[in-house]
């Protein structure tokens, strides 16, 4: 039987094992800066770690799915729509869908990811779906900051046409947004306490709609640029809606 308490106990045991291993390795003296896999999408069980959201939660008509593919990756896919249900015209900004990892409670509190010793967030992804939807993906990071609605975001750029690729995004290039607006007074990301990481597709402001699909295999923290260099560009204007919390 697997319930919330069972999962919390299992995560607590994992934290204890990890902390013991760190003590043995003396990471406080010799910090580990090797590449770290933060999230994997290789198994059906991996997919259960993620929560989905879209404008349909508030009255829009976009759809969102995250499925496991037998070849060992996840398919983030759906239909990006810019219309809303009757009676909500002009009251809702439609055109978004996304996913993020679920919160990870233990008996000692939440599990956070410490990215303070890494320079890049690396994603193994493949853009599919209708070609005109491929420029509307964003990577979202939520930290354990004082304002839970703050999100650090960066556009996800692709270097190939529908091929698997490794995209490396400098963590220093993420910008802080809140409720879809770029925050004027930017602050440094609390990299040592990352609560969630996710991906969203935002079609509202660019008036992009259609069938979208993104294959994703893993999300890692790394210190070296990958073979395919990341673009130096990042969020040039605020997205219209952050991923649903």
TrEMBL record:
Keywords: Chaperone, Mitochondrion
Pfam families on file: CIA30
Keyword Mitochondrion applies: yes
Subcellular location, principal: mitochondrion
A GO MF label: unfolded protein binding
InterPro entries: Galactose-bd-like_sf, NADH-UbQ_OxRdtase-assoc_prot30, NDUFAF1
Keyword Zinc included in the entry's annotation: no
GO terms, biological process: mitochondrial electron transport, NADH to ubiquinone; NADH dehydrogenase complex assembly
Cellular component annotations (GO), alphabetically ordered: mitochondrion
Span of domain NADH:ubiquinone oxidoreductase intermediate-associated protein: 39-216
Location in the cell: Mitochondrion
Family statement: Belongs to the CIA30 family.
Protein name, per record: Complex I intermediate-associated protein 30, mitochondrial
Organism, scientific name: Rhizoctonia solani
